[in-house]
Amino acid sequence: MQTGVGKILVVVAIILGGGQAQAQNLLEKINQGLERANRVLAGGGPSAAVSSGNAMGASPSEAQLQRIASAMNVSGKPVEVEVMYQEAKGLIGEILLTTSCIFSSPGRMLAKHKAPQGVLDIWSVAMNMQYHNRSQCVDVQRVDAWKVEARNAFSFRVQFVSEQSGESQEAFFTLSKQPDGVWMIQRGSMH
């Protein structure tokens, strides 16, 4: 029987389309970012405890991870986007996890993925939902509106919804492939 962590790794592997090692790497990156941010916000040092379900963020449930995987892998992307999507889906998965579960400055957490001269106008989805229970991540309801922007860039829309309150929020992202082959966020904005 798989442990909870094992199940989460399997779902993250589905999101990334890769193996369990790639999924473990993504989860470790997210956890490291959460730990650093929590220490800074708490005013603690490296040994400060990480608390979950606070204003900083929450951990996604297995069902939420599965919804992210399903939303990302819906068919119907234009053929030109599908090729770029396959290269950038690790970044897209990280964007979706960060924006749905980080409640304090998800834009700061994603800044390391911002392209030079990129614009990242992202704030907390959950904090803009008046009735959402902040001990839980917001659900990713759909990822759509895939569009080729250039030979090395594409855009998409993300719809978030609170399972508890029914409130919703949208975010729009444009990703671009850099000269070194790395995909980065060219533009991210909330509506």
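The record above closes out task 2.4. Task 2.5 opens with a second protein, given below.
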Amino acid sequence: MNSDKEDPNNHVPAVSPDDDWDGLDVNQVFDSQLPPRRSDAPKVPRADVNISAYKLIDPERSTGSAVSISDVHHVKSSLSIKVNVERAERTVTERDNFQAAHIMEDVKLGDDAVQKYQITGNPGRFAIGERDDWGTNQQAGSFRWMLYTAVGITLLIALTIFLTKFFDEDDVRKNDKPNFTKVAPISVEEKPTEELGELSQLANGNKEAQQIFQNYIHSTSVDDFSKSIYRSAQNTPLAKDVWKSANARSGWMLSDLSLWKTYQIGSTFYAELKGVNHDFSKFIAYFRFENSELKMDWKATTGYGTASFSDLKMGKGNGSEIRGWISTSNFFTTHLPESRYHSFLIASPNKEASIWAYTEKGSEVDKAILELFAVSPITGESQSEAKVILSLERGYKETLQDQWMIKRLIAENWLDQTTL
């Protein structure tokens, strides 16, 4: 400890040369007020240390180089290691009677002060009792708690199911009648059983439709398939006028991968059979029920028209029932100006030929045709072409041969119309 360092906690006045210590009568001072004499302090064993191998730093050398201890004349060959037993005993006593003031007292001692800390309670508790506090011995209790909870939940579910089965639903409603608001039953419009039966039969008619179409392709005369077409009595004479044999190879069968899809237009149900024909061309055949029997709609399947498109291009033929694809156009002439008419392109069912057709702006048929290309308010989409059945008539004499006037929109599909 540096005795030259001023201790801020020392309240003894400074010693001056004028102080007279010679006149102090030591006998007047009680021994109890003075610290024990150094000679009376407990003897500490002395330890001889061989310091020949150690080196010390010479404080007189500025370079701080090490010098051997044996070379220093003022260093004794033995060192005395002293242990302040009294301080150690006092520390043990203070540990038993701990007070905050003790720590503060040691803090005031300066740089050499050592703080003392006290751990309350049983020291061995951290080694043994802590495991008991944190669940080492609680595993069995935790397991039992989880088991009881699971059993309780199971019993609650079983009780709920039992009560649900035990009490009748009507009894529950009677008990809740004061707090129950009666709601009028929602009436659901049920489809007639006849319509549901027809739709169900049509959905399951895939195999039968394939057999009818195969028989139609392999037919060598109209009589071979006339009984299997829709409205056979009216359409057989028409088929004899326009029908031609497909000349399909023997043994050809329709693929099972053909697509079968049902549709409904109002009260009319029909189905489409899509696939690949014997000549590897794509086809769409239409089927409907007639007197509870599945029939092929010959007109819709073949795209029948009262006149061929080759005749219509020449300005000939009966245009009362023409099936084709309609799309908007912008072809106008002097006698059919854009200011008065809307122009449309009518393509044949196989799209190999086409004619021009017109409607007068503002007419009923004009509105009906334009409605086909209107933007849908639900999907926001519109179609560029549509399948239609049209009634056509010749225009003015000055019009071109392939220019026709649309008289009526018969249907937005190619199905055989019974109203014709």
